[in-house]
Here is the input.
Amino acid sequence: MHEYSLMTALMERVEEEASSRQALAVHRVTVRIGQLSGVEPELLASAFDIVRTGTICAGAELRIERVAARWVCPACGRTVDPSNGGPRCQPCGAPAALAEGDEILLGQIELEVP
Amino acid sequence: MCETCGCGDPQLVSVEIQERILSVNDRAAAHNREHFAAHGVLAINLMGSPGSGKTAVLEATARAFAGRVRVAAIAGDLETERDAERLRAAGIPARAITTGSACHLDATMVHHALHHDSLHGARLLFIENVGNLVCPAVYDLGQAFNVVALAVTEGEDKPLKYPVMFRRADLVLVTKTDLLPYLDLDSGAIDAALARVMPKPQVFHLSARKGEGLEPWFGWLEEQLALRGGPDASHPAHGHHHD
Here is the structure.
């Protein structure tokens, strides 16, 4: 259950941003979570419900954007389908690289400012 | 305009951040990585399920490198110093990190352990992570390589069930191969499953208890040590800054 410790780190960053802008409230926090990031969006949402109580995020919505895994061949740039024999480029034989899908990102914060 | 006092209405602003949520851990990991580079330390993050044989592999490795390479270890567990004690009994300095309820090690925990005198002077440092196939994969510790131990008794489907962990593995050690005669399992099926999730599969099969199949693993470590070179003499042991 590392989602709770991730959420604690996220809240610290959001509170820092809110306080530097003298925000009155946080309306929305948008995060991007990759399919292969090792983070479970449902657990992250539950952690948010626990952690936000009594903070500037008490009334905020957590928007989780899920990012599907996308593999590419670093040699030829082709998109690689890993379900077809693993994450390697069939024509080149090169190990594929994950272009998207391992992110654990804080995207945007929507703040109410005076 | 607010009708009560004439102040301006609050307004909504959207602030672009686009930062990794683990940026604090990433900075601590970068700090550890600089420390390892400056001191010529090869740091290995050893992960795997509880009971996958991580400590047994390290005991065998400690014995094999005794007198030739200075090996040290940091062992993470929720409770007890048992793994660190086993590693000290095998002849290497080892520090325990007891995480309480945390399911993984993070870069700051490793950094604190690195300040302990007993680990100074090591050229090969193993960070034995908390036994878990999920959470440790998420945290960079500053290691050069991720090595995952997978016991044959865990079954061939584990790489497919835990792709995040195995995707990040630079090397997988399939352990406890001496138990294969008692299992309804073909070890080739483990290799096939690993090839479906690892971009560049590198796998050694071994039994630490019987001392079988360990040579490729030792050879791989020797190769990485040779590539790394020695410590940079311009860096004194504690001459580094913290944020």
